[in-house]
Amino acid sequence: MGRRKKGDAVSGWICLDKPYDLGSTSAVSRIRRIYNAQKAGHAGTLDPLATGILPIALGEATKTVPFLMDADKTYRFTVEWGVETASFDREGAVTATSDVRPPAAATAEALRAFIGEIEQIPPAFSAVKVAGERAYDLAREGVDLDLAPRKVVIHRAEVTNAPDAHHVEIEIHCGKGTYVRALARDLAAVLGAKAHVSALRRTRVGPFRTERAVTLELLEDLCNRDGGSEVLLPVETALDDIPAMAVTAEDAFRLSQGRPIVLLPRQVETLKARLSSPDGAGPASRIVLAVHGGSAVSICEMRAGQLRPTRVFNL
User: Fold this and answer.
1) How much is the pLDDT for 281?
2) Which one of 61, 196, 289, 308 has the fewest CB atoms closer than 10 angstroms to its CB?
3) Where in the chain are the domains?
4) 298: phi then psi, degrees, rounded to nearest 5
5) Distance of alpha carbon 7 from its chain centroid, rounded?
């Protein structure tokens, strides 16, 4: 007999509103203990000094984490002018100062150059790997890093407030791999200023938004009253951009055993239309979510008139 897993077979997503000064790994551990879950993981690290949306997967939902890693994100952050730090946030040691305080209008105009696909050099204090080691570990040891630029996409960037001459508040909608601290660094350079990010909040990761977010305090209170399921989102929440297809009980059973099912010609045509890229420019996807009775059965790949399971859910 296999060893029995410790904890309860809880499956679903928690849209956590991560508090300040809590690491992503620690947040996962807290959620796992609250639910006494057998398995847990997160989709998209959020710095300890940042607050906001941290999607946490429990149980079978961990199988959908890879599909959320490429999701777009939205951030609101405050740039503080006049002081540059080694990490480009308020935790780092001061490395430079300046008397330049760019006006909000000039900042908004400069931001326009960062919209679209751009090349961005990650901050030295980042999770980028260098020769198998994390850049932030090397940076803390005083290693002088020369990180290569990466292509990232910023769909929208705008100034939302300028409470005083020393601060400007910005909101961006961006693709994966975008560093807010690097954007603040580069924006300051364009404006001839020095700056760092003094506050950062993530407000969206794919389908996980502020409206769905819950705090650790609320989760602990709910679970103490056996109400934790009230805020547990379905396993398929992370798959909102993958077309779903209802299957029969017989086909659901076959898929759950890892066996493919044969599609009818009309099903193939319907799925092909739904899987094509919206603008017709990119290659069509082959990924389909099979559901039965309102519950996810498996993530499948459509090929040669069949649905072939790649990840099976044990719900």
Assistant:
1) 47
2) 308
3) 12-62+207-237, 73-205, 242-312
4) -165, 155
5) 26
CATH number of 73-205: 3.30.2350.10
Q: Which helix (H) or strand (E) holds 207?
A: none
Helix (H) or strand (E) holding 173: strand 167-174
**Catalytic residue list contains 8:** no
Look at residue 227 in the predicted model and tell me its pLDDT: 86
Residue 226 pLDDT: 86
What pLDDT is recorded for position 282?
Answer: 47
- Other CB atoms closer than 10 Å to residue 15's CB: what's the count? 21
Rg (CA), the chain: 22
Task: Encode pLDDT of 66-81 as tens digits.
Answer: 999 889 999 999 999 9
Catalytic residue among 47, 89, 186, 251: 47
- The CATH class of 242-312 is alpha beta
Stretches in the chain below the pLDDT threshold 50? 1, 280-282
* Contact status, residue 43 vs residue 151, Cβ threshold 8 Å: no
The conformation of residue 36, written as its DSSP 8-state character, comes to T
Q: What pLDDT is recorded for position 173?
A: 98
